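Example for tutorial group B:
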C-alpha cells in the first residue's frame, strides 16, 4: 500500500497534473451536474476543487475531506485564496466521513483508492453518506510501468477495483480510458429503482 507523504503536498498542486487527464471534461463525462452535492475524497492539495466548484455552481456544494491535517490546512488555504464559496474542507478519518447520511449526489476519488488500508470498510462508510443512485467517479493509476505515480505493484487493476466496488453492492457501469497513465471507473450507489436498468454492468476481465 502506497501512502502519500504530506510533505510533498505542493507536488499535488502543480498544473503538470493536467497532463494526466482533463478534469472538467472528465467530470462532466462522469455525469457531474450543476446543483449536485459532491464529496471530494482525499482532496490532498485541493487540486480538483476549482473544477468541482465551477461545475456544481452556486446551487451546489463540494465537501472536500482528507485524513491528513496538513492536507486539510493546505486545501482550506486554497479555497480561501480562490474564494470558492461553495466548498467546505473537512478533517476526516480514513473510514469515518464527517457528514450526515444520504446527502451526497456525486463522490469523486482521484488517485486515492490505492492508499486505502481497508477498501471494503471505507466503501461501506461511503455508501452511508451517498443518496440512493448517487454517482461515483474513481480515477486510478494504471497497473503497468509508468514514468509517473506509484509502482504498479501498489495500485489496483481495473478488475480488482471493480470487484471491490461490487463486493459492497456498488454497481460498476463502465471503465473509461483516460490516457497513458490512468483509467476511470463510473459506478452507481445501490438504488432499487435503478437495478432493473443496470442488469448487465460492464465487468473488466482480469489480465491474462
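The residue assignment follows.
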Amino acid at each position: 500500500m502506497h501512502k502519500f507523504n504530506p510533505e510533498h503536498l505542493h507536488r499535488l498542486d502543480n498544473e503538470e497534473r493536467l497532463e494526466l487527464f482533463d478534469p472538467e471534461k472528465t467530470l462532466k463525462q462522469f455525469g457531474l451536474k450543476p446543483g449536485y452535492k459532491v464529496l471530494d475524497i482525499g482532496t490532498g492539495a485541493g487540486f480538483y476543487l476549482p473544477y468541482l466548484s465551477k461545475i456544481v455552481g452556486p446551487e451546489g456544494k463540494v465537501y472536500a475531506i482528507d485524513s491528513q491535517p496538513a492536507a486539510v490546512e493546505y486545501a482550506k488555504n486554497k479555497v480561501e485564496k480562490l474564494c470558492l464559496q461553495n466548498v467546505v474542507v473537512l478533517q476526516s478519518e480514513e473510514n469515518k466521513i464527517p457528514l450526515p447520511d444520504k446527502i451526497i449526489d456525486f463522490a469523486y476519488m482521484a488517485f486515492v483508492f490505492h492508499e486505502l488500508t481497508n477498501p471494503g470498510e471505507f466503501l461501506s462508510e461511503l455508501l452511508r453518506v451517498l443518496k440512493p443512485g448517487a454517482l461515483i467517479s474513481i480515477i486510478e493509476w494504471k497497473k503497468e510501468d509508468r514514468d509517473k505515480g506509484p509502482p504498479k505493484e501498489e495500485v489496483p487493476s481495473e478488475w480488482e477495483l471493480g470487484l471491490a466496488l461490487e463486493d459492497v453492492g456498488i454497481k460498476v457501469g463502465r471503465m473509461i480510458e483516460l490516457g497513458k497513465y490512468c483509467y476511470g471507473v463510473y459506478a452507481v450507489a445501490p438504488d432499487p429503482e435503478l437495478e432493473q436498468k443496470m442488469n448487465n454492468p460492464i465487468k473488466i476481465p482480469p489480465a491474462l
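The two ends are 23 Å apart (CA to CA). Compare this with the pattern of hydrophobic and polar residues in the output above.
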